[in-house]
Amino acid sequence: MTGRVRSKTSRSGIRFITIALPVAMFVILSFTASSFFTAQNLANVGNQVTALLIVSLGQLIVAIGGGVDLSVGSMLSLTSAIIVTYDPAIVIPLAILAGCVLGVVNGTGVAVFGVHPLVMTLATGTFVQGLTLLVSPVPGGVVAPAIEALAHGRPFGIQPSLLWCAVAILLCWLLLARSAFGLRLYALGANARNASLNGVTVVGPIIACYVMCSLAAVAAGIFLTARVSTGDPTIGAAFGLDSITAIALGGVQLSGGVGSVPGVILGVVTLGLATNGMNLLGVSPFLRMAATGLLLLGAVSLQRRKTIGV
Asked: Are the C-beta atoms of residues 247 and 63 closer than 8 Å to each other?
């Protein structure tokens, strides 16, 4: 029983530092930023981290399978461009279709043709960003009221960002912790060859991972565009690096086989508090990307690969 509990703990990737970081940031901001505890600021933090959490959960699915997806930011931007460019009746199905196509292309390139995930998703992400600028070259456009309501309506008086987060967390948790697919994915990420020799299918699950990751980026694009009520062809530019940093801070092994939904939540909260803290303390926004890069470097440097059993 103890061994089973230890195995699950190791597979989650959550360690002391994973929990200590957001707690430390929370305490530091409480003493150094007088406006941190205002209702407006806490609501802003919630809205800001929602899209990042959705994208990061998609990134988690790919990372557990041993991959990475750099095209999520471009897919998010394309979703925003589609929403303000085409007939409101077809924009969401069209964005979902685009996400499925991108995920199948990424997954096929990685699982069938053996292209490295970094190269594959960087190439497709660059292509999709160029396509996005063709669809909508400049920020602007009108978002249909029905789509705006997805981020501004308050069903049962609940903040919409909380509902988006709850649905994304529940779906991802059910997939990874309560399904046979999740178990096979951990096995593939830990050791794809061994998993294959034990009868686990490789190609189908890997392609499915990339499709789900792209669909997560589509969902984040819908939420973000609805929230700002306009389109922006570069709105997702930072999400590729941010989502990878968030999952690394949450203890997810970028080499595969280790990671969990609670860990990603902690990683997103850490990154969200860091960003909010820099805003409140008047730190130059140009330093944000540099700080994110340092956080990613620090998180990856702390990772030590272990052999994880199924």
From this structure: yes
